[in-house]
Amino acid sequence: MTEIHLKSVRKAYGELEVIHGVDLQVNSGEFCVFVGPSGCGKSTLLRIIAGLEDITSGTIEIDGVVVNTVGAADRGLAMVFQSYALYPHMTVYKNMAFGLENSKMPRAQIDERVRKTAELLQITDYLERRPKALSGGQRQRVAIGRAIVRDPKAFLFDEPLSNLDAELRVTMRKELSALHSNIGGTMIYVTHDQVEAMTLADRIVVLQKGIIEQVGAPLDLYNRPCNAFVAGFIGSPRMNMFEGHVTRDGDEMVLNIQGAHLHVPNVPDLKDGDRITMGIRPEHISVHADGSGELNAAVTVSEQLGGDTYVYCDAPGLPQITVHQPGQLPVARGQTLSLSFERAQMHLFGADGKVVANGLPG
């Protein structure tokens, strides 16, 4: 298995710098996922690792060997693209065997690798078909199989599931996770889909404007975001964010968030008048049927999913509030809900966006 280390990697196109001094170590055997909004540099960073883009400065190491001047073909990595990139005139077997044939591998060994990989990916029945006779999911399996037969040092995936429908994406996510468990290997995966990131990754790398904002295990990022950007980006639906300021009230402090006044325990790093952003996830807002909550909000949309209910509410002076309740919560448009916020699950961010508190005491 392979370790990949980026040291102070920068990439510029003329005067436009798109990757700003990235330092990152991808551990051997790890499933590492790059996420971030469009244009954040995640695909560029993947192409840099693959050798498809030169770097402006910095160092790329694969298993301790600097590969800055090593071409893509000689880095020993395999890349799976969003577009599948299969040869339309070749059968599935030929698509998978093509790279091995070019490397002059013995035919018997090629056949063994192709058939073993096809069995692993459950595409043995399609080996004599051409890509046009396959579904999107089957084509993606072939593209992955073509990478596996090369026995690469690491696998690089560039949004490989984005062309598939929702149901098939769920199936392929499970298969990719199982594949990693079965064959091991270092995998780096680029996606804009947070669900893919949360379910596949050993570690997530969150990027914004060519800078790494935070690296960590999925639940670490979800529960302990380092800044407001990561808090708002990780999680679906998004974390509720309310801007306001702090006032002191004896042993407590008050979060004044655009018309609502929430009494909370003191946070030592905050002083009277400080600007803050309070974040809370939809599942950490409680609904009180008896009206005993601390904020009233009117229902604008209710999504009943059977096992879960998502309610979108409006309150004077506040942005839209998203509430997640397990099970079925029968509510109607225009109905007033009484809401309260779990203090232990509140996230506070300072005026600079950096976290001040992830969770407040009782």
Report on the structure:
- The protein folds into 2 domains: 4-226, 3-Layer(aba) Sandwich (Rossmann fold); 237-358, Nucleic acid-binding proteins (OB fold (Dihydrolipoamide Acetyltransferase, E2P)), CATH 2.40.50.140.
- Helices cover 23% and strands 35% of the residues.
- The chain has 8 helices and 21 strands.
- A 6-stranded mixed beta sheet has the order 6-7-8-3-9-10, with helices on both faces. The chain has a 6-stranded antiparallel beta sheet with strand order 13-12-11-14-20-21.
- α2 packs across α3.
Count of DSSP H/I helices: 8
The count of strands amounts to 21
Q: Which whole number gives the mean pLDDT?
A: 93
Task: Provide the β-strand percentage band.
Answer: 35-45%
CATH architecture of the largest domain: 3-Layer(aba) Sandwich
* Class derived from helix and strand content: alpha+beta
User: How many whole angstroms does the radius of gyration measure?
Assistant: 25 Å
Specify the CATH class of the largest domain.
Alpha Beta
